[in-house]
Structure formats: structure tokens, C-alpha cells
């Protein structure tokens, strides 16, 4: 059972960076993304101050973040990985089920993974996560390697956002539309999703 002390959580840097990025996106009118708090059950309290000093986390039914990007519903979770091997156990079954259900409602879901050894942020699309998840369920590897990932989904570093994941979200939208057009309507079909271009819809 996970617990926390009142000094604060360790390893909250990734969450703080994403929260600040989301605030920048909100101020620029590009997106409205909310952090979903994890419910806690207090165990010990300081009677003098009334502060919780020890508690345990209850299981979340959703992911870390949910909201909308220019009319497109999105949700995602943030993970940190210290090696080039990402254990799928870091994604809880209830989180994967929620992401799957969200995708079935025409939402966009993904993971933001920080590979700390490489100092690199990565956008893992739902489709790729589902491939790794199904491979594990079929008796395959319980993790995936950084070398298995498409470098096109690396989140770029540039001024204007701390973790500019909207750039990679746009690439995800284009990739989804191209795949759907080729598989269903042929190469000349119109894309279903609007594209995000310089913060505006095209």
C-alpha cells in the first residue's frame, strides 16, 4: 500500500512540469487540461495543527490528466522511467481500461514518459501502448524497450512550453487520420480530425 509523509512526495518534478505546461496552454487558449487528484485516506493526523501526517493512496479509476484540446477530448498519464526498459506494470489495468473506453468514445489517449537516463520526454500513443499490452497478455514480454519506439514521437525541446506535447499530439492526429484514410476510404479521403497548426485549427 502506497503511503506518503507530510514532507511531500519525492519525484514530483515531472508532474510539476506538466502542470506548468498545462497552465501555459490554458493561458494561451490552446487547451484546458485538469489534473485528477488521487483520493487519500488519512491514517495519522497532527492534533495540534490539524494536518495529515500519514495517509495511503486509494486506487484511481482514471488517469492523471483529462481535458480538451481545441474541441478534441484527451486524457493521458505521466510516467517516469530510469532505464531504457519500461515495465508495463507501471500502467495499472484500471488505467488501461479507462484509456481504451476513452478511445472508443473518439477521444485521444497517450502516455508522457520521461526517460530520465536520456533526459528525454516521449509521447506514447494509445495504439502502441495497446500493442505492448496485448503482447504481454499473449505471454510475451512484460516491458518494452526504448529501441522499440518510433523516434517521431519524441517530444521536442523548444521555447514556449516546458513539455510541448501538443506538437506531438498533432503528429498523432495526422498519423491516425492517414491510417484511417488508407484503410477505409483510400488515399484521397478527407481526414476526420482537425489538425492543430501553430495553436490554431486548420
Describe this structure in words.
- Strands 2-5-6-8-9 form a 5-stranded mixed sheet.
- A hairpin with a 6-residue loop joins strand 3 and strand 4.
- Helices cover 30% and strands 29% of the residues.
- Mean pLDDT is 82; it is low at 1-12 and 187-191.
- The N and C termini lie far apart (47 Å).
- The protein has a single domain, classed as 3-Layer(aba) Sandwich (Trna Endonuclease, Chain: A, domain 1).
- By secondary structure, the protein is an alpha+beta fold.
- It is built from 4 helices and 12 strands.
Features:
4 helices, 29% strand, alpha+beta, 30% helix, three-stranded antiparallel beta sheet, five-stranded mixed beta sheet, single chain, 12 strands, 202 residues, disordered N terminus, Trna Endonuclease, Chain: A, domain 1
Amino acid at each position: 500500500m502506497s503511503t506518503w509523509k507530510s514532507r511531500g512526495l519525492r519525484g514530483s518534478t515531472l508532474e510539476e512540469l506538466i502542470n506548468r505546461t498545462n497552465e501555459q496552454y490554458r493561458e494561451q487558449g490552446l487547451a484546458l487540461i485538469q489534473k485528477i487528484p488521487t483520493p487519500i485516506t488519512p491514517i495519522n493526523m497532527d492534533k495540534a495543527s490539524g494536518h495529515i501526517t500519514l495517509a495511503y493512496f486509494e486506487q484511481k479509476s482514471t488517469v492523471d490528466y483529462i481535458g480538451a484540446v481545441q474541441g478534441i477530448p484527451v486524457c493521458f498519464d505521466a510516467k517516469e522511467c530510469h532505464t531504457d526498459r519500461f515495465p508495463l506494470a507501471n500502467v495499472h489495468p484500471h488505467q488501461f481500461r479507462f484509456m481504451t473506453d476513452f478511445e472508443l468514445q473518439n477521444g485521444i489517449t497517450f502516455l508522457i514518459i520521461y526517460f530520465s537516463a536520456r533526459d528525454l520526454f516521449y509521447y506514447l500513443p494509445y495504439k502502441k501502448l495497446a500493442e505492448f499490452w496485448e503482447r504481454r497478455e499473449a505471454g510475451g514480454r512484460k516491458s518494452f524497450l526504448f529501441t522499440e519506439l518510433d523516434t517521431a514521437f519524441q517530444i521536442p525541446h523548444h521555447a514556449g512550453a516546458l513539455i510541448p506535447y501538443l506538437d506531438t499530439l498533432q503528429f498523432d492526429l495526422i498519423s491516425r487520420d492517414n491510417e484511417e484514410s488508407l484503410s477505409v476510404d483510400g488515399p484521397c479521403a478527407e481526414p476526420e480530425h482537425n489538425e492543430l497548426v501553430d495553436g490554431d485549427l486548420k
